[in-house]
Amino acid sequence: MSKKTYFFLILILGSLTALGPFSIDMYLPGFPAIARDLHTTAAKVSLSLSGFFIGISLGQLLYGPLLDRFGRKKPLFIGLLVYIAASAGCAFSTSINGLIFMRIIQAIGSCAAAVASIAMVRDLFPVKDNAKVFSLLLLVVGVSPMIAPTVGGYVTSAFGWQSVFLILTGMGVAILISTFLWLPDSYKPDKMLSLKPKPILLNFWAVLREPQFYTYALTGAIAFAGLFAYVSGSPLVFMEVFHTDEKVYGWIFAFLSVGFIGSSQLNTLFLHKFTSEQIVNFALICQVIVGFTFLAAALNGLLTLPVTIGFLFLFLCCIGFTNPNAAALSLAPFSKNAGSASAMMGAVQMGMGTLISVLISMFEVPSATPMVAAMAGSALIALMVLFIGRRNIKEPVEIQQGADAGFVH
């Protein structure tokens, strides 16, 4: 594969992966404006974020078998069309319940892009390169939290929150056109794969009972839940506790994303000297230390705006190391039906995100403590799952070698 082709594939797959994060981050500065216009509270508006996570969790399980049965591109195109229609629907919502519903549909559409992009990494690149490719995708994805909230803050301020969803509609159209024209077919449809419920469930069960998969998928998902806690809680913390406006919040969010992006790119360098297993271990331990130090500061009233930003920066750096390595280790045992494996991994991750975002939305107190407690707790539980689950991995599949796994048809 030439460097030009490699770069182009990363760019297209990155744009697919970034669609979901843009849909999450871009409207965050508009929470107060949405609450005012739809006559509700910011906490109720945050349920539209939880609804998005629910849609992604359900949608990934739907698209996994479809991507294996019909190939990558047809289900991807259908998902993008659903996303475009739902994004327009969000822009014209007149009630909070209507917005929550359209966000669920929007998420179901967007997760086709997320599942397809992850599966195509496994299709198009050697297993030994997967962790590096995931890190490069995080670079593209990482641009979204740098750009999206900042742009969203200015757009909301100038044109209203509805314009954010119109921009997302346009993005969906642009990505649909680019994938149609330039994304190669990477997987031959498996016409023997049944779409009946029983074989699909057996297929997912074959993925779930692989010790390496459930250990690293669950570890990565729980650790990543700390990011969802931050995303869900940050509008309240920054705009209501520290009284920043939409534009300042966007810039803070962008700055904090540098930690996540920078560490994910340093990960590619670390992989030359350390294994993914070693990096996950060290990053999770650091994440626990940072999380509980952050929590101690919150409980003792020591959090100022700069201190809060500093702790969040360090915490997100840890996730930037944990996430790509855990993802690569989760998928390493699978080559055939990687779509089902990637869908299950994504569903577990988004399921954890849904749970933690709903918990955050239940606390309407003007305090950073609920968000910080959720972040610290997620890190500790992830570390415990890693240590316990690793005992069940009798023959670990090294990322440098890869292996095929059998599935039920």
Automatic annotation (TrEMBL):
InterPro entries: Efflux_drug-R_Bcr/CmlA, MFS, MFS_dom, MFS_trans_sf. The chain crosses the membrane at residues 45-64, 76-94, 100-121, 133-155, 161-183, 213-231, 251-270, 282-303, 309-331, 343-363, 369-389. GO terms for biological process: xenobiotic detoxification by transmembrane export across the plasma membrane. It is found in: Cell membrane. It comes from the Bacteria. One of its GO terms (cellular component) is plasma membrane. Residues 9-394 form the Major facilitator superfamily (MFS) profile domain. GO terms for molecular function: sodium:proton antiporter activity; xenobiotic transmembrane transporter activity. Belongs to the major facilitator superfamily. Bcr/CmlA family. PANTHER family: MAJOR FACILITATOR SUPERFAMILY, POLYAMINE TRANSPORTER 2-RELATED. This is Bcr/CflA family efflux MFS transporter.
